[in-house]
Automatic annotation (TrEMBL):
It is a multi-pass membrane protein. It comes from Nonomuraea salmonea. It comes from the Bacteria. Residues 1-20 are annotated as: Disordered. InterPro entries: ABC_transporter_permease, MetI-like, MetI-like_sf. The chain crosses the membrane at residues 29-55, 90-111, 123-144, 171-195, 216-235, 278-300. Its main location: membrane. This is Carbohydrate ABC transporter permease. Keywords: Cell membrane, Membrane, Transmembrane, Transmembrane helix, Transport.
Amino acid sequence: MTTLTTRAPARTTPSQSPRRVRDKQWPAYVFMSPWMIGAGLLTLLPMAVSLYLSFTDYDLFDPPEWVGLRNYAEMLFEDPRYWRSVGTTLLYVVVAVPLKLALALGAALLLKNLTRGRGFYRSAFYAPSLLGASMSIALVWRALFNDGGSVTDVLKWFGIDTGGWVGNPHLAVFAVVLLAVWQFGAPMVIFLAGLQQISPELYEAAALDGAGAWRQFVSVTVPMLSPVVFFNLVLEIIQSFQVFTPAFAISGGKGGPADSTMFYTLYLYERGFTASHMGYAAAMAWLLLIAIGVVTLILFRTSRSWVFYADEEGR
């Protein structure tokens, strides 16, 4: 005869008191303190000061004078050059980003199946991304596209006389676009890493179903690579809204000809450091931050309909 005995449930006690948890966490805060101090002094504090200055009339020499929303009202309703800078920047983003990503993806697809010399070509294609943001490269680019430059001479040889892109109001902005597209190396490397993660079995299954190269690209490569496309798209759009050095070098810092290269950041620089309207420039900077945030939010919201994550169900 067996007797059943009931065992009292084990008494649960809190594993650690809040005080003991804090005692264990303080070393982490000590090691993080240099970053936290740097973030506060070099990022958060300047942002707070610039936000305050955006509501003032400040010329870098006299104390700031509070003017409320006057800078924002002048910017949005009284300054036509501001809207020209917005239009130029949007044109640059709409043209440069798709071309750059398309070229980067095309180069990555070519390098994916390359067996010999892949390292050399990958380094050669990536090099412009390291050099293109420098002032020296931008000045060389200006010389290439100026009247009498190499690009102009080559086009003349084919019977196309543009008279120099830099001095043409209709073509100057596209010289900046081509400089950005030339720097396709960074997104190319990211695309190449994404392509190498796609299982070859997917292509084999598509080939057995009779899919050709184009169908495999559309039905296999693009969906499986969509997270990488989304990542590159967000980064490139954010960077494109902040373009400055190429526009400054190619236009000589004036945004010419006829404000055709007056990008947003270049106009911000002109108002802040040339005209000494630092309060106005701070207001421009905050509107740019808001615009980038809104565009990024829209991209994240719309990504649910076209970005495919293989580890998520229901996609």
